[in-house]
Amino acid sequence: MNIIITGASKGFGKSIAEKFAANGWNVYMCSRTEKTLYQTRDELRQQYPSVKIEAKPFDLGSKTEAQAFGKWILSLNISIDVLINNAGSFEPGSAYNEPEGVLENMIAVNLYSAYHVTRTMISKIIEQKQGHIFNMCSIASLQAYTNGGAYSISKFALAGFSKNLREEMKPFGIKVTAIYPGAAYTDSWAGSGVDPKRIMESNDIAEMIYAAAKLSPQACVEDIVMRPQLGDL
Ligand SMILES: NC(=O)c1ccc[n+]([C@@H]2O[C@H](COP(=O)([O-])OP(=O)(O)OC[C@H]3O[C@@H](n4cnc5c(N)ncnc54)[C@H](OP(=O)(O)O)[C@@H]3O)[C@@H](O)[C@H]2O)c1
After folding, report:
1. What is the pLDDT averaged over residues 42-70?
2. H-helix segments, the chain
3. Does the structure show a pLDDT above 90 at 19?
4. Among 38, 70, 88, 220, who pairs with 175 as Cys (CB 3.0-4.6 Å)?
């Protein structure tokens, strides 16, 4: 079985790659920075020598690169069993006064990336008559909060994409799951001063995705909402 993960050099993406590789899945992944991506690829190859781990750098904030990533996967002639649209970034701010261009950037990285990657691969997934697409939304897709701004707007939009895709894919036997995590400790939290024990671990998210991917073909987990035990920060 094969899993395709965007933004897998660190954070949730890397934890998801580890979880699936540990269970015998081949992993195909991307992120922007070549050095960290190849470091992660090499680490995973060492840890899980019996599976295939392939990686190639792409900046999914660009439409042509998002499509190129999809085309690279298609060129490998593998089944696309699970696709995780995880790549994303967070710029804190408020919609009313954040710098010009932040919304465009957040929409490109957090929404268009998933939209174009999925559209490039979808005909192949439909042909297979099976497959599972996960979209990494956020609690910020469900509610507004201080400093959410363009990030929250882009994650609401990603949830909209995910809900539409879920409806569209029903007749084809393709599952679509939206994941809505609250705060979980990754590099995006490094230097924030937040106690890692106050929020979730990135492995918590990987465990839930793996469980959702293992259900019978008749069952689809539509939404996964996860929060720290003590609630949002
Ligand atoms: N951590 C949380 O608390 C939390 C909560 C809710 C939702 N999320 C969402 O979960 C996802 C992963 O977050 P994370 O905390 O794991 O972040 P992270 O540790 O910063 O990792 C993000 C990954 O995405 C890659 N990436 C970023 N921009 C990219 C681009 N334009 N093209 C290709 N790859 C790109 C990064 O590598 P490069 O920088 O080298 O490209 C990295 O591999 C994001 O969508 C985020 O919004 C996170």
Report:
1. 98
2. 11-22, 34-47, 63-75, 102-107, 113-128, 149-169, 202-213
3. yes
4. 220
